[in-house]
Amino acid sequence: MVYIKGLMDAEDGGRANFLDKIKNQILHYRSRISNAEKELLELIKKSNTKDLNAKEEARLLELDGFIEKSTNKKSALPEQLKGTKNLDELHKLIANTDRLLEELKRENADSSPES
After folding, report:
1. pTM metric for this prediction
2. How many domains does the chain divide into?
3. Within this chain, do residues 76 and 100 fall inside the same structural domain, yes or no?
4. Are 40 and 94 in the same domain?
5. Shared domain check, 78 and 107
6. DSSP state string for 29-92
7. Is residue 61 within 8 Å of 82, Cβ to Cβ?
8. pLDDT tens, position by position, for the chain (115 residues)?
9. Is residue 102 domain-shared with residue 79, that is, in the same domain?
10. Do 98 and 58 have their domain in common?
């Protein structure tokens, strides 16, 4: 827990009582939630204009989870963004590579001289 130095420093005569500590903790937590919501909205806005990279998608999911756990709000993240676009693209690439390899094997088999 981080408290304002003046509240905890006995030399200045400022002693944090229990209520001050709780109040500061609540303010800090609310600030974290507010900052997370702002960052989440920025990432959602960005995802509407272009694809997010893997790091941005991971951060988006992390922020969404934090907000869902911290508040009683419904998911702020559209369902179509819950999946990983980059993973879907990777699956397509793998499938295309498999098809290409099969075609190359067939062409190789067709063009090789029979023994």
Report:
1. 0.53
2. 2
3. no
4. no
5. no
6. HHHHHHHHHHHHHHHHHHHHHS---HHHHHHHHHHHHHHHHHSSPPP-S-GGGTS-HHHHHHHH
7. yes
8. 555 555 555 454 556 688 888 999 999 999 999 999 999 999 999 988 988 888 998 898 889 888 888 876 655 555 555 666 666 777 788 899 999 999 999 988 888 766 5
9. no
10. no
